[in-house]
Amino acid sequence: MNDRTDIKTNDTLAQPTPRGGGAHAPAVSVIMPAYRVTEYIGGAIDSVLAQTFVDYEIIVVNDGSPDTDELERVLAPYRARIVYIKQENRGLSGARNTAIRAARGEFVALLDPDDLWEPNYLAVQVAAMRNEPTLDVLYSNARIFGDAPDAGRELMDVCPTDGAVTFERVITQECNVLICATVRREAVLRAGLFDETLRSSEDFDLWLRILKAGGRISYHRQPLARYRRRAGSLSSDPVWMCTHYLQVLNKVERTMALTPAERETVERQCAHVRAMLSLHEGKRAFFRGDALVAIEKLNAANAYYNNPKLTLTLQLMRHAPRLLMSVYNMRDRFILRASTKY
């Protein structure tokens, strides 16, 4: 099958296995890296404990969080139900790698501590992966909640996934492999775990390595998770995200044996992301009052986009910057009802 949207997700296919003791290895290892997430992590753990599928372990890795005392107070009621590991800060990749190395399950389920699962998340995911033994990664849809204008929408509406998940379609973001993923542990180990030199887009990098090694990734559209948007988080910063996305693309060019078609795709995507980065840097410069840098960056972006709206924005920026700022303020206040300045 080419289009993996036909994955069977009937959760009645997964029969929960009672949690055993001693040498019993659970089917799933739920991994949760913890850094400045104390106010959220209890809810995330509760969403795991509410699963209809019960053959799992929960591994929480405290990645040198500066609020460790408070984190451990929150975790205290759960300590008999979780594996708790504390380490010096190594970043999200390092925390996940520590959990994966400690994991005993055939499957690894990624859960960021500010997100939540629906009660049938594991039942659906495990059943689908057991039905297709060659499947290495399966991700579901999610509903967005929290401090964001798109709260209430489904994540696949914002980060689209269409058609089969291939190396090139992940590069071009036609398929966005969401972090609401269940992964065969052996596939992650074969791919070399998460790259600890990356401070963002580390999951994007891992999915590309799994695909390039011949692994299979698929998805379905059932919203089995709730994805929290947080104002001020790094994932909400488009300059940060574009910068680190480019870092991964540059790594792909340097380290992977690409076919001519793949190399052309990567080069086109690099040009696209560089233009996006210039666009966001230009908007940021304008909002902080640096018109010269804003015009320079937006000119660079428009050399790629050749967009009439962006051309008009540049003209207003040169000749009527106060009017342009008023337009942004009115849009934020009356249309979006949220600030778009960053």
Report what the structure shows.
With about 350 residues, the chain is of the alpha/beta class. Helices cover about 45% and strands about 15% of the residues. Residues about 1-5 and about 10-20 have low confidence and may be disordered. It has helices at about 40-50, 70-75, 90-100, 120-130, 155-160, 165-170, 185-190, 200-210, 240-255, 260-285, 290-305, 310-320, 320-335; strands spanning about 30-35, 55-65, 85, 105-110, 115, 135-145, 180-185, 215-230. It is globular, with a radius of gyration of 22 Å. β1 (about 30-35), α1 (about 40-50) and β2 form a beta-alpha-beta unit. It has an eight-stranded mixed beta sheet with strand order 3-2-1-4-7-6-8-5, sandwiched between helices. α8 packs parallel to α9, α9 packs antiparallel against α10 and α11 (about 290-305) runs antiparallel to α12 (about 310-320). The chain starts with about 25 loop residues before the first strand and ends in a 6-residue tail after the last helix. It contains 13 helices and eight strands.
Strand-helix topology:
Layout: E1 28-34, H1 38-49, E2 56-63, H2 68-75, E3 83-87, H3 91-102, E4 107-110, E5 116-117, H4 121-131, E6 137-146, H5 155-158, H6 167-171, E7 181-184, H7 185-191, H8 202-212, E8 217-229, H9 238-255, H10 260-287, H11 291-305, H12 308-319, H13 321-336
Parallel strand pairs: 1-2, 1-4, 2-3, 6-8
Antiparallel strand pairs: 4-7, 5-8, 6-7
